Amino acid sequence: MKSLNDRQQKIQEYFIEHKTAKIKDILSMFPHGVSVERRTVIRDLEKLYSRGFIAKYGKGRGAYYSISDSHILFKDIDSKNIFPHHLMIVK
């Protein structure tokens, strides 16, 4: 699976901070000198959706996106505290 590019990471950070957004909110993140097409933002959102990071609600211009429940549930888990270092992983 390919990693996220800089623009997609910026969009991901927006969702972490704001939780929900419409496409126009994402477009407004970029300075006026930076040209980001609406279609590009839609593709970026589709990638984040396919990875389970966001959920989509509605269709067309009324659609909005929200950080997924599963991402919220697992983002703060510290595996080092849950699984002690002395556990051995058996393959």
Explain this structure.
The longest helix is centred in the first third of the chain and has 13 residues. The protein has five helices and three strands, in the order αβααββαα. A three-stranded antiparallel sheet has the order 1-3-2. It has about 90 residues and is mainly alpha-helical. About 45% of the residues lie in helices and about 10% in strands.
Properties at a glance:
globular, mainly alpha, 3 strands, Arc Repressor Mutant, subunit A, 91 residues, 3-stranded antiparallel β-sheet
* Main sheet: strand order: 1-3-2
Query: What is the number of domains?
Result: 1
Unreliable segments (pLDDT under 50, ≥5 consecutive)? none
Oligomer: single chain
Whole-angstrom Rg:
16 Å
The CATH H-level homologous superfamily: Winged helix-like DNA-binding domain superfamily/Winged helix DNA-binding domain
- CATH top level? Mainly Alpha
Overall mean pLDDT: 83
Query: What's the total helix number?
Result: 5
Biggest β-sheet, characterized?
A: 3 strands, antiparallel
Shape: globular
- Beta-strand portion reads 5-15%
Order of helices and strands: HEHHEEHH
Number of strands: 3
Helix content, binned percent: 40-55%
Structural class: mainly alpha
Query: N- to C-terminal separation?
Result: 23 Å
CATH fold name, please? Answer: Arc Repressor Mutant, subunit A
Based on the structure given, which CATH architecture is correct?
Orthogonal Bundle
